[in-house]
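User: ok so my PI wants both of these folded by tonight, can you help

Assistant: No problem, let's get them done. Here's the first:
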Amino acid sequence: MSRVPVLEIGGTHVTAAVIDTAAARPAPLAVVREPVPADAPAGELLDAIAAVGARVKAPREAHWGVAIPGPFDYETGIGRFRGIGKFESLDGVDVGAGLLVRLPGAPRRISFVNDADAFALGEYRAGAAAGRRRVLCITLGTGVGSSFLDGGRPVADGPDVPPGGRAHRLTIDGLPLEEVVSRRAIRRFHADAADLPDDGRLPDVHEIADAARAGDAPARHTIRHCFGALGRALAPWCERFRPDLMVVGGSMAGSWDLVGPAVREGFESWAPGSAPPAVTALRPADAPLLGAAHWALHRAAGALSVRT
């Protein structure tokens, strides 16, 4: 099982690839990325996802790895997308069974993995987290994704990690974390700080970062406030989990020159010296694909599970 077909299902797109897991530095042999209608009926949506998978040359009777965001029952392959504004038609649907009959090559099995865990596993296998035992991986995009890895296994339960191992379930200053640190929250805070009209044309996060680099005071205040809150939310859990390294990915990692100091300041406000070493991802584009392949490979061998 050295060639593993994978899917990465995002909120607006699907990426398919075949990963050569036997390579010293595994990389996708082919990659296809296409938009999908996230608000389509279940059958149409599953057809669209499988159509992307059909565009890569998957081995026959393959074991596919699929990275998909939650809420999702990763063991049974059933969607739990209720009240979250995406993939609503897949709520209660056996996505695994639906894809098994739609994907080419008569696949024999599908192993699902949370998209943040897939990113972390990819960075652990061939990226910034390689060789590290305990790693906290954070993705900063539309929201906050997280994975706590111990020896290459996601930790989802226990006193050392947030509920489910998910940082987005944390609160800060009495608010859910993603009400302070998310694309929507950052844009809203900046609009208030800069006294901008609510006309639907608010600057996006990368534009706020550009303004902060140019010395704009409201933009600098926004970055410091929002990402400082992220550091304060993560600090007590890093004190418990004690990661050797924090790896940061997602679209906002491109502004790490601004985001990083703000996050560190938040850690320092919790306790001096509490911030773990932090780096940006080495494989930001294909880490979730590599991680999904790694998950499927070891699930087939019965060697990889979520550590609780």
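One down. Here's the second:
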Amino acid sequence: MTNRKTLDPESSPKAAYGAHLRRMRDERGWSQEEVATRSSYSGQHISAVETARKSPSLPFSVTMDEVFGTKGSEDSFERQWHRTRPGPLLEGFPEYVANERRAVELRLYEIGIIPGLLQTPGYARCLADSNVRRGMITPERAERRVKFLAQRQEAMEGSRPPMRLVVMDESCIRRQVGGSEVMADQLARLLDVAEQPNTVLQIAPFTGGEQRALDLPLNLLTLPDMSVIAYAESQIRGHIERHTDSVLMLHRAYHQLQADALPQSASVAMIREARKGYL
């Protein structure tokens, strides 16, 4: 067969999933189009997953188990899908993190909580432990989540760290997470971050009201080739957007958000004043 891409299942969990899909197809003598006709996915989608150009999703895996008759078996696609996920992370987030490490510029907007890359260990631990108490995750997953965040932060501290443009809704510094000591340390961390030459930190005040350009958290990454990708999350999954028109619209909205936010000097003053309430 010509133009058949060689797969290296050892290169990544996503590649291992693709190799598994190809093996299961080959064993049955099915083409990608034949798999497509037996499912709700296109041949192009099947090809993209098989060659690791697209991440498999849980719905896709459930469908493949139905198509191949592998539900609950050692060859289960759902079982294989779980291996592509770094434990406690949302679907789509591992791909975002891979691009985050390559980015030359990060634009972050957060509501309600401090952005992960700026969290102290104590603050991150409180958030993870809260999810454990509510039964959302296990203590083991909470531990992996905190460790993974520390690894992300460490990856941002190389010899040439990316430029970070951060806008936080005022609720991020007003919402108390943990006790006074945790919040005092966290706000002190923000003050330190604001002094770093590769960071611009701004607060979008409550007084912005309905003029706020963005109503949901958003991350924008500028990659070395100067292309930009957007990342946003729901409660159950993350989504990366690369379509030029959509990303351009979000990029424009972020510029408007920055323009309406407090300048860094006023933002630092607000953070410093908020910290006094925890001392």
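The mean pLDDT is 90. The beta strands are 105-110, 163-169, 199-204, 218-222, 228-233, 238-241. Good luck tonight!
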